[in-house]
Specification:
The chain has 249 residues and is an alpha+beta fold. It has seven helices and ten strands. The chain has one domain: Alpha-Beta Complex (Lambda Exonuclease, Chain A). The strands form three sheets. A five-stranded mixed beta sheet has the order 2-5-6-7-10. A three-stranded mixed beta sheet has the order 1-4-3. Strands 8-9 form a two-stranded antiparallel ribbon. The longest helix has 20 residues. The two termini are 39 Å apart. The protein binds iron/sulfur cluster. Iron/sulfur cluster binds next to helix 2 and helix 7.
Length: 249
Amino acid sequence: MPSETGLPKQRKLMSDPITISAKNLGALAMPDFCPRCFWIGMHVDELPYQIFPGIFSSIDSYNKRLVHGWFDRHGSAPAWLSPLGNIKTYRPPPHYSKFKIFDAESNVTLWGSPDGILVMDDDSHLIVDYKTAKFTPHQDSLFPMYEVQLNAYAVIGEQKGFAPVSGLALVYTEPVTDPAAAAKDSNQSDAGFVMGFSAQIERVKLQPGKIPPLLAQVREISDRERPPQARKACKNCLLLEKLLAIAGG
Ligand code: SF4
């Protein structure tokens, strides 16, 4: 019999603890989410071909240092964060080993590592995530994943000393690479060149109620004895089958 998630009911292994990051939980909200891929990811220690360019995390770290440094030197938020409202200060985001909660219903531990926690003038908290990407209003295909990721941070934050969480936002930082910027002599020096970034802010609706059903879905998929069916339209699984057929001789 299908469950509420549309997936067949499986044997429960509720005794097996599961740990999942806010970002990986967000994968379940993507329109092309594949339970098979998720199941495989949960059951192997490491997937092959996982190459992520380190430059993006370097830029995100730089972003955090810029914001915190500005607050420390000037006692106020940088002007490009002004669309977020009256920000009083910031609180250093805790290490992910401390920013986690346990959900007894699903026996799942949810952890995260928010980029920024801003304190508003009413002492509530606004959680932000920096994304180095071109900004197109409401058209980021990864938005459903980011929405869950930020709401997971809100749920964790509420229980880990950051209550109340009053808002969530994505801060897109987009490289300025137009011909005018390239033509500026001031963007070059003996050491190299300077590339600016323009910031765009997109608010994310606070919807903590989205998180418990997703944790239940993690449990349900993970407890299956066998991997779910492959998505029909996914050419990667067909390629993998071909690869295995060739390798198998
Ligand atoms: S169908 Fe696609 S997304 Fe699903 S397991 Fe296969 S390769 Fe992964």
